[in-house]
């Protein structure tokens, strides 16, 4: 069974370069042994082994596979991966494959997105996958940083989006976005001076509210400025902003 109808690899250049460098070091190691001393016979034996042995090849790097479909929340994960320069394989699934035992080993409920981690672990729910990608990037260096980021990711998924979806964008906008507006009046981004996984989660769902429910955020100038900055980013344009 073929899962992959569409395969995209983000950020492979860095990983490939690292693998090539490692391979070069491994191939050079027999010759390096000759510089470390020892008897002449030992040096000759080492030289013969270096000349006749098969070069050691570095293993191909393993990258996470993210399964989904065009227009789904998989795009949010892809956006984050591009922003943080984390290589992933993005694989489009059909419903038949989503119901298969093989895919349910990745996502037990057979939904999307799902992620097969570098070590084969299955991760599901877009927020959890996003935090995993942020961890791979090293952008959550402390428990406190991870907790602060997780708070926004969970809020976007469990509070903001359900409020927008159930009300068709007609919920208490001040109650929902008032605190966000205040934070963005003090900082360009939710967690400091740079875009983070928190901004990707919140920004994506604000954009979905605008697209699906014609949600008007003009009463929130800081949020409007924030969304303009998000929509200007290349990674956003290639994923969520590309439909």
UniProtKB/TrEMBL annotation:
SUPFAM superfamilies named among the record's database cross-references: GST C-terminal domain-like, Thioredoxin-like
GST N-terminal domain location: 61-141
CDD domains in UniProt: GST_N_GTT1_like
Gene3D superfamilies: 1.20.1050.10, Glutaredoxin (3.40.30.10)
Pfam families named among the record's database cross-references: GST_C_3, GST_N_2
Domain GST C-terminal, residue spans: 123-243
Superkingdom of the organism of origin: Eukaryota
UniProt record similarity statement: Belongs to the GST superfamily.
Name of protein: Predicted protein
